[in-house]
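Readers outside the structure-tokenisation community will struggle with the description of the input data as it stands. What matters is that the chain and its backbone geometry are given together, residue for residue. For illustration, here is how one protein appears when written out as sequence plus structure tokens:

…
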Amino acid sequence: MTLLKIAQIGHPVLRERARELTREELLDPEMQQFIDDLVETMRDASGAGLAAIQVHRTVRIVAIEVKDNPRYPYKPNIPLTIVVNPVLTPLSEERFDNYEGCLSVPNLRGLVERYAEVSITGMERDGTPFERIARGLGAGTFQHECDHLDGVLFIDRVKDPKSLSTWTEFERHHRPAFLEKILPFVKKMGG
């Protein structure tokens, strides 16, 4: 497997809209190898997710996995999930505030409003239909990664620029208040 270079904020690729893949393109051995490399890159960077566009491939693929992630210790685990051509649909108007970070926007966090429950459809990596409902922080993770496919970064959705902070300052000044709000929400949503 190969570790891929993660595009950083300011690189034009992060503002492009990724194109959909056909089933035939997806099943090509080269694309399957790319998906393996995408997953390996996400894990190496301790990401909760990674979109293909973040590694300079403008195709609609996201990888998501949370497994006792040190960057997000309060996030419930999500098994490795690959979604091709994802489509998200909010299932209610309920929203929550989430402090987000991004591998393409290093050392920055900000408060973003996300839907509390979404339906995700698309294809699995083997081309079969994918359908899942995500709730809570997991729903936020899917929304964050799918935003990348449309050239949207979390900083575009930050509610108040005053919430922007480095990781160190988040840990020092904002984490306790954030946890006080988010942990009951995680419990309520089951994720």
Observations:
- The chain has one domain: 12-189.
- The mean pLDDT is 95.
- Helices lie at 23-27, 29-44, 136-148, 154-157, 167-189.
